[in-house]
Amino acid sequence: MNVLKRNGELVPYDVDKIHKSVNWAIGDIKGVTASDIEINANLQKRDGMTSTEIHNVLIDSAANLISLDNPNYQYVASRLLSAQLRKDVWGGKNPPKLLDFINKNVHEYDVYDEDILMLYTDDEVNKLDEYIDHERDNNFTYAGMRQLCDKYLIQDRESGKIFETPQFAYMIIAMVCFGKYTNSVRMNYVKRAYDYFSKFKINIPTPLMAGVRSKIKQYASCCLIDVDDTLPSIFSSSTAAGYATGSRYGIGLNMGRIRPLNSPIRNGEVIHTGVIPFLKLMESTVKSCHQNGIRGGSATVNFPFWHYEVEDIMVLKNNSGTDDNRVRKLDYCIQFSELFYKRFLKNEDITLFSPYEAKDLYDAFGHENFDELYEQYERKTSLKFKKTVKARQLMSLFIKERVETGRIYYMNIDHCNQRSAWDTDVKMTNLCVEVLHPTKPMQHVDDKDAEIGICILSAINVLEIQSDAEMEKVCDVIVRLLDQLIDYQDYFLPAAKNFTRNRRSLGVGITNFAAYLAKNGAKYDDEEAPNIASNLMEKVQYYLLLSSNTLAKEKGKCPKFHETKYSKGWLPHDTYKTELDEFVTVKPYMDWEYLREQIKEHGLRHSTVSAIMPCESSSVIQSSTNGIEPIRNYITYKKSKARTLPVIVPNYHHYKNKYTLAYDMEDNQGLIKVVAALQKWVDMSISANLYYNYAHYEGGALPDAKVIKELLLSYKLGWRTGYYLNTDDGDKQSSAEEINEEEGCESGACAL
Questions:
Q1: Which of 167, 303, 603, 740 is the most exposed place for a label (fewest CB within 10 A)?
Q2: pLDDT of amino acid 290
Q3: Which tens digit of pLDDT belongs to each residue from 235-273?
Q4: Whether 539 contacts 603, CB under 8 Å
Q5: pLDDT tens column, 76-131
Q6: Considering Cα of 267, then 271, then 274, then 280, what sign does the dihedral take?
Q7: Which residue out of 430, 512, 626, 689 is catalytically annotated?
Q8: Residue 712: closest CA among 368, 343, 201, 366
Q9: How many Å is the Cα radius of gyration of the chain?
Q10: What values do phi and psi take at 340, rounded to 5?
Q11: Can you name the residues that pair with 222 across neighbouring β-strands?
Q12: Tell me: the pLDDT tens digits for 650-706?
């Protein structure tokens, strides 16, 4: 029997080569055997089968052996996949020279940005080549290596040909990020960035991992588009959403200004169609653009609780009704304030208005004068669009839809304005609700006075940071590289460039927090968990601000620094909810007064520095728990269009009794307190989910009162936004959870 090699040569089938490949992949890995892999492979030999087919069978065999009892097969499968990738990309077992590799991908394949060759001398590239450690590929799990191959490594998505291997990708990303640094320091920064990427200390979000080095210079994760109540603004916003989706952005839309159904236009000459037709327009725009073969487009739309059509808006995702009155492929965020919560508690009425008739009310929403103005409008008798409903009725509807769909989010707009870094109006949040930006609607697509909020995100893998000194260095690198990308990237519209270059907003978060808690011997509902969270995020925020302040000294503060609270001497913990003091007993320990004076004197290079995002997809690459979330199970199966991947939590054997399982929690109070403790230090917001297991409630029914109670608690403790509501009805075939990334945040840019 003959085997067809990659080079087209026919050679006799040799079982020793299989033994050799499997034994190489096993190496020093414990708890695995070559015989199990080969027996499980059950290779169906046939004359003329390709060496690639044989190798794929071995990969699948090792992958199928991955289990909680035998977790190390994930590293064997990864090495087998890595070996195949190297043969495909390198043409053999040994890597090409970095300079030759870059030249080939620039000139022959035309997939790399030619700037890479212009930024560095041949001598510098050769020195960086010597620094690359390709053995670090052995640290990937199978799920991580597969995720890289399927989604993040530069490839021809039609043919499936991949043009790079992980360590080359990490080094070249680092080279692009620091390519315009001065020659005296940039080699050091490139090496540090490469180390932090390849050692999983910095979590690279999807747009960076898939885009930096490519010819598409779009690196931001989030885009916030504010829509005015005019046709030019609506249609130009739709255009912007299309451009942004095609550039890998997840979309936040604010359509709270649009007047309701049957409103008069031009003194009654035209009757307005309401918000739903325009939501359908946005849905079509976002879903028509596929993000470079990596993921589909997605958007979250923001509305105030007092919008005249809010009751219809809340039900747009559910499975009732007809397609004419539903817009199911968008997500929705309802904006609340203290006034609403107070009236809910008192069982009082609220009043719904048309934003067109109450323009100054819309402007006041989120500020201290809102309540008084709202009551004035309630007393007005001249309004054509005014409707009274019970606050509890509206809350009940919101909770029902949030529980059934999981994807009706909320924004506490007064907290967002009064307790975040911005001194200008925040009217909306992004796809995954962790980004808060002031925005200004476009009146046409080339509107240079408008502001489309753009945010470049990343995260720190806190489990991998070994000391405060290392945390400071990692924070410095991450701030500097994101700062460079602000200037290096292209912008799809003037309004996006205008915002980003003037405000220079960054959103650095943390990931692998569940494993970090487990390492520190705490569960989410333990008394010590909020203290651990507070200490950690205080340190992260301090070092992020310190780095931004240092950059301001080097390069100047951001042009609109004066429109932040930082310019007035504010720091995030100045305005936290003091109710936290009941359970966050640790005191601030960083030298905040020194930093405050430095910021007042020199400013910051960035308007914001922190936001905690989901890290849903990129966490798989690093074998980390995603974001700040508790784990759903010790092993999960991440489904994508390509395949299903087994994902085992980090250090399972060491921490398995210390992890918090999300659906084992009797309630969310501990989680809510942990998020609040983190929020104390974060200058934007946090993408935070809640979890409910129907088995914990009488009759297997989740009481609305339980959900409402925890919603009120999150507001009381200063949550600015709330993301998914996840439920477990017990209808699973096994103890392992299946997570469909196409249905989760992977459908948009929150899949960092």
A1: 740
A2: 63
A3: 999 999 999 988 888 999 999 999 998 888 877 777 888
A4: no
A5: 999 999 999 999 999 999 999 999 999 999 999 999 999 999 999 999 999 999 99
A6: negative
A7: 430
A8: 343
A9: 26
A10: -60, -50
A11: 250, 455
A12: 999 999 899 999 999 999 999 999 999 999 999 999 999 999 999 999 999 999 999
| Nearest C-alpha neighbor of 565 from the set 591, 603, 602, 594 | 603
Set 164, 434, 464, 616: catalytic member: 434
Decide: 233 and 262 in contact? Cβ < 8 Å.
no
Predicted confidence (pLDDT) at residue 742 exceeds the cutoff of 60: no
| Residue keyed to tokens 């925005």 | 439
Please determine, for residue 736, whether its predicted confidence score (pLDDT) is greater than 90. Answer: no
Query: Which residue from 402, 344, 327, 302 is spatially nearest to 685, judged by alpha carbons?
Result: 302
Instruction: Using alpha carbons only, give the angle 245, 250, 254 rounded to the nearest 5 degrees.
Output: 100
432 among known catalytic residues: yes
Helices of type H across 178-290: 183-198, 206-211, 231-246, 276-288
18 and 38 Cβ atoms separated by less than 8 Å: yes
Q: Quick check: is 434 catalytic?
A: yes
**N-to-C CA span, the chain:** 46
Query: Which is nearest to 750 in space by CA: 435, 505, 514, 474?
Result: 435
- 177, 222, 416, 432: the catalytic one is 432
Domains recognised in the chain with CATH numbers: 1-93 (no CATH), 222-415 (3.20.70.20)
What separation in angstroms does the CA of 248 have from each of 51, 302, 748?
36, 20, 8
Non-local CB neighbours of 693 within 8 Å, separated by 6+ positions: 663, 664, 665, 727, 728, 730
CB neighbour class for 412 (10 Å; exposed up to 12, middle 13-18, buried from 19): buried
Residues 575-594: tens digit of each pLDDT: 999 999 999 999 999 999 99
Nearest to 108 by CA among 156, 76, 143, 141: 156
pTM of the model: 0.95
Q: What is the mean pLDDT of residues 359-371?
A: 95
Residues with Cβ within 8 Å of 294's Cβ and at least 6 positions away in sequence, in order, are: 151, 152, 206, 210, 248
Residue 43 CA: distances (Å) to CA of 17, 61, 67, 385: 14, 10, 22, 71
User: CB of 156 within 8 A of CB of 105?
Assistant: no
Q: How far apart are CA 416 and CA 436, in angstroms?
A: 7
Q: Which two tokens stand for residue 207?
A: 């747009």
Work out the number of other CB atoms within 10 angstroms of the CB of residue 466. Answer: 9
Give the Cα separation of 211 and 291 in Å (integer).
11
Instruction: In whole angstroms, give the CA distance from residue 70 to residue 605.
Output: 48
130 assigned to active site: no
